[in-house]
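Worked example 3. Consider a protein that binds thiamine diphosphate.
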Amino acid sequence: MTSSIRNTLNRIIHPSALGGHYVYNRAEEERARQLNLLSAKVRLLTIDSIYRAGSGHGGTSLSIVDIITALLFHRLNWNKFLGDVKGKSAEDQWQHWQNPELPRDRFVLSKGHGIPSWYAALAVGGYIDKDELGKLRTMDSRLQGHPERKRFPFIDGSTGSLGQGQSVALGYALANKTRGKGEKVYCIIGDGECNEGQVWEAAMSAPKFELDNLVYIIDFNKKQSEGDNDDVMNVEWLHSRWKVFRWHVQRIDGHDMKSLVRALEECDKVKGKPHAIIADTHKGYLGGGETFMAGGHNPVIDQESFEKAARFLGDLANSYARA
Ligand SMILES: Cc1ncc(C[n+]2csc(CCOP(=O)(O)OP(=O)(O)O)c2C)c(N)n1
Ligand SMILES: [Mg+2]
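Given these inputs, the predicted complex is written out as structure tokens:
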């Protein structure tokens, strides 16, 4: 199939093409402004930490910053836990995190190579010290290049081997439902990751157990490490595939904070089915229509690119702060 036909079909199945147009109220606009401000800060710290480390997955991390910001600062019910551990020693945080009685949602970053943006978001929220970001990817640091659950709190799955995080998330959701705990499980998946067979085993199982407490967010940035999805293994049919597997499916602009918040809230309303949010994103997205280092997967960040992006993000943050 030629890519122009595929693009046309893609537009037809996009909810906005079906008249799914929302009118947002003032409170929603204001919340989006605050979240966008946080997003710009998270992007800045993400790039800064990768620049200082000398390596890391910049493009990957930047494409999910808005999703991560909406989850951490708006959606996850971690307020009690995070309030209790803010400013505490690493040891105290760790003890607290391990408490099985602690009621809290779960978060699994299945595309584990995007973890720098999660560390950055935790630093923006004040849950870890900003200085610790300078230890990204260093020996014995808690902040490894892929998430390690047994080394660092705030992580519910050690990931990096693509295709496995969905199964971990599904296990949490099943356990939660069985125990009637009413907590939600969120999992971010790469679109290239959807080439993995294990993703579809999880996709098949969740509806059987009616896991409406499970939310997969697919980072549909159209690229993977080896190039464009279309050239590696086509996943343009993501939307219909999740539907066929009997999931509640939404497709949104993954850089639009209002759509993200609305889609996450929509998941509370639909019962009896697991939820897939297909978020259209751009690899290396900086905000305001700009892309960092041509959306490269894991480019080595040179000083000029870093400084240019830092200036841009500083201006962007100021514009949200003033608005
Ligand atoms: C099982 C497995 N196979 C291959 C890899 C190597 N790998 C790392 S990132 C990546 C591409 C992932 O693409 P996508 O899920 O679209 O994430 P993005 O790069 O867009 O963030 C691959 C193939 C891996 N980490 N795990
Ligand atoms: Mg991708």
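Take a moment to read the result before moving on. DSSP finds 13 helices and nine strands in the chain. The chain has one domain: 25-322.
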